Amino acid sequence: MITFFIVIYGVLFLVELFLVLSFWFRFKKVPIISADNLPYITVLVCARDEEGNLEGCLNSILASDYPIEKMEILVGNDNSEDSTPEIVAAFASKYSSVKGVEIQHEKDGLIAKANVLNQLIDQSSHQFQVIIDADMEVASSWLKTMVSALDAGYDMVSGYTRVKRSNWLANLQFMDWQTVLHTMKSMADLIRPISILGNNMAFNKLAYDKVGGFIGLGPTDVEDLGILQRFQKSGFKTIQLVEQKGYAETKPQLAFNELLTQRCRWMNGVFTHHFILGIPALFARLWVVFFAISLFLSSEVAFIILAYGLVTSWLKSRTMTIKTKSSGLIFIIEPIIISLLDTLALLRLIFIGKVSWKGRKHS
User: Fold this and answer.
1) What is the pLDDT of residue 358?
2) Residue 268 phi, psi (nearest 5)
3) Which of 39, 68, 87, 349 maximizes the CB count within 10 A of its CB?
């Protein structure tokens, strides 16, 4: 057992160091398209009971440096029980670019977000499609950055999402997202994207149609990973963006149950579509558990695991902060809490086995 832990965390440590170096020296950027050549685009917004968020989301899109006359904004109202429909109607009456779409429940057998997106895409007009969740707000250059990647020849783009910081718990999630995106960016630039941010992504509709779209996935609550893999299997180009100015912000999960549920969805996606990668990810994310076990075996092994958890988190946080010119740095307590949260999420996923999306549970 001692040798097993030494080998596992020794290899993980070397892999993480290699990814840090890759992140720094193989960092891919895309040229920003000139204002004269900006194409017409469709922005897809999924909304279910978003009366507290939707207005901020739409205002941030409309205030971006992308010409409003070149964007079509489709807002899918997914059977909301609050004032979301009225907010959509108000924006649609004020801005000709905004259109509300009433979503049919589980049309064509699709569930969750895939059902919403499928119906929005059916009504879209343009080749370049950008997806954003209604609880997000975007930076002024976000749209131009996403579209520039599509214009450069990429068929699917995963955007740069940050957590809006307001307190200690929000800052914890901000740093966690930063370190996760560090790994996603490193792997994407080194080989190809291993995951995608469903709340902030874009694609070329020509490629989307060729792979069969969300209809081809069938009922799934991990539609983002599923569609990414279809693009990749068909040979289409994909990229993970991390840009200083072209980002979108999501609100933090401030309730413990919501935080665990979010992590359950992430883990469900990993083990559904990346089972082989899920095994090393298990040791990487749940290192605190194995650290606690190793305390009863060997203090040297415990030190190796502790060093892995703290040092690699700090390195990824630091390099991400430098590249994005953002503030904040991860310290000792944050990696420990994040690992414990992941442990609880895995236990919940194992014993409850249901994933909730917008108040709906899917097996």
Assistant:
1) 62
2) -60, -40
3) 87
